[in-house]
Amino acid sequence: MIAVIKYNSGNTKSVLNALFRIGANPIITDDAEIISRAEKIIFPGVGEAGSAMAYLKKTKLDNAIKKLHQPFLGICLGMQLLCSHSEEGDTECIGIFNEKIKKFPPGQKIPHMGWNTISNLKSPLFKNIPAHQDVYFVHSYFAELGKETIATSGHGIEFSAALQKNNFFGVQFHPEKSAAAGELILQNFLSL
Amino acid sequence: MLKKRIIPCLDIKNGQTVKGVNFENIRYAGDPVELAKEYVKQGADELVFLDITATIEKRKTFVELVGRISKEINIPFTVGGGITMAEDVGALLNAGADKISINSAAVKNPGLINDLAKNFGSQCIVLAVDTNIVSGQWMVFVNGGRIPTLKKTFEWVKEAEQRGAGEILLTSMAHDGTKKGFANELTKMVGQNVSLPLIASGGAGTENHFRELFEKSNADAALAASVFHFGEIKIPLLKNYLFQFNIPVRI
Q1: Average pLDDT, whole number, for chain A?
Q2: Does residue B251 lie in a domain region?
Q3: Chain A residues with CB inside 8 Å of B250's CB?
Q4: Is B35 in contact with B17 (CB distance < 8 Å)?
Q5: Which residues in chain A are contacts of B187 at CB distance < 8 A?
Q6: Looking at residue A44, which CATH number applies to its domain?
Q7: Contact assessment for residue B172 and residue B182, using Cβ atoms and an 8 Å cutoff
Q8: What is the ipTM of this complex?
């Protein structure tokens, strides 16, 4: 079973549609017990870090997520919430990844919106993805580079386009909106 | 490096694609979902669907269409037309739209931008601006470009940014449908007034027009309709052309 986590900051429809397109049959749930039994878990997200974290704490999903052992993929805000801290609303996040979330410095257009290249790919998540691949981003805050970085991109500053620690994966871009390459990345995740 | 986006726009009436020439003389040009899939195949970076009759006709058909599009296509798309309140936006985002564009309703009630940004996030709020020169000044028009307002274009885009818009879709009405090139100077000036992503629309006729737009302004994206719908410009050839002139595109 593939579970997509439902909470107050999801753009879950696009993620579900993408999973159906690649032949998966996901369920959407906010039930920690069902999530704990899933084979793969996807944590989407669009929105504001502070209110999303407040909701996850209230529903205790934050602790439930920490305890998971299955392959887990955070997308966009979902990835950011797995980090230690976000400058957006000065928010303490779930803290799987050590990297911090910062606001893009002035001088660049914000949000960073559109197709940008990911490079320095080092993860089975990027199996059969070319060394420099364009994918779709929409975000105003970024994860700094760190030891958990498994892909980089740049917008005035170089940042983590993807992170991995053990069974936890995070991508800043939207694989569900990144055409065939994005679908391959989702497929790779489901094949882990 | 962030790529310049090429965005086909599909004007929708009663579930069919149309393109108005200077906002009049509507011609039919095909099934939206089929066209959308074709554009994804060709390498379009994003799609825009504008429900041009939404202000007067029922919206349900359009929401259903948005749901079908979301199932079929794997690139981002924006929907707009006739959005007047947060409920409209909620329905379209829930149907699978990535972004929504607002125009007339935001001019009448600028607080709508704040409300939408707060409820749904700036990243999905596109402010569409139809503009034309009146007595030497770029002014904002509403209702599909039919009604002039007292808002000055450069002030309006700045205000919209402060209120939480996430992107600007700028249409020069004098250029729209002419196929004589984009409003490069206008686009450049708007780009100097905001630090939001900026989509230029209106006037595409040749590949060179796209090149001129990206060389003469800091537009992030170019939107066009009929030149794509009728195959006068093929997106893969357009992108190759731009690439040859060192304009960053996704190939």
Answers
A1: 95
A2: no
A3: 115, 134
A4: yes
A5: none
A6: 3.40.50.880
A7: yes
A8: 0.93
Residues of A engaging B, defined by a Cβ cutoff of 8 Å: 11, 13-14, 17-18, 20-21, 46-48, 106, 108-117, 134, 136, 138-140, 154-155, 174, 176-180, 182-183
Per DSSP (E only), the strands in chain B are 5-13, 16-21, 24-30, 47-51, 77-80, 99-102, 125-134, 137-142, 147-152, 167-172, 198-201, 221-224
Using a CB-CB distance cutoff of 8 angstroms, which residues of chain B are in contact with residue A11?
93, 98
Position with higher pLDDT, B228 vs A155: A155
| C-alpha span between A169 and A125 (Å, rounded) | 8
Q: Can you tell me the distance from the alpha carbon of A43 to that of A65, in angstroms, rounded to the nearest whole number? A: 10
The pLDDT averaged over each successive group of 10 residues in chain B (251 residues) is 96 74 45 88 95 66 91 96 88 92 96 92 94 97 91 98 97 94 98 96 97 98 90 94 98 92
Report pLDDT for B55. Answer: 53
The pLDDT assigned to B177 comes to 87
Q: How many domains does chain B fold into? A: 1
Residue B249 lies in a domain: no
Q: Is residue B220 within 8 Å of A108, Cβ to Cβ? A: no
Is B166–A17 a contact, with Cβ atoms under 8 angstroms apart?
A: no
- Count of structural domains, chain A: 1
For A18, the closest chain B residue by CA position comes to B74
Residue A174 is a catalytic residue: yes
Instruction: Output the domain CATH number for residue B213.
Output: 3.20.20.70
Nearest residue of B to residue A106 by CA position?
B195
Cα separation of B187 and A116, whole Å?
Answer: 22
Model pLDDT for residues A57-79, shown as the tens digit of each residue: 999 999 999 999 999 999 999 99
**Each residue's pLDDT tens digit, A168-187:** 999 999 999 999 999 999 99
User: Closest to B196 (Cβ–Cβ): which among A13, A47, A109?
Assistant: A109
Structural domain of A142: 2-190
Kindly list the residues from chain B whose CB atom is less than 8 angstroms away from the CB atom of residue A115.
2-3, 5, 45, 250
Q: What percent of chain A has pLDDT over 70?
A: 99
Share of chain A above pLDDT 90, in %: 89
Active-site residue, A93 included: no
Structural domain harbouring B96: 5-244
CA distance A30 to A100: 26
Active site residue A76: yes
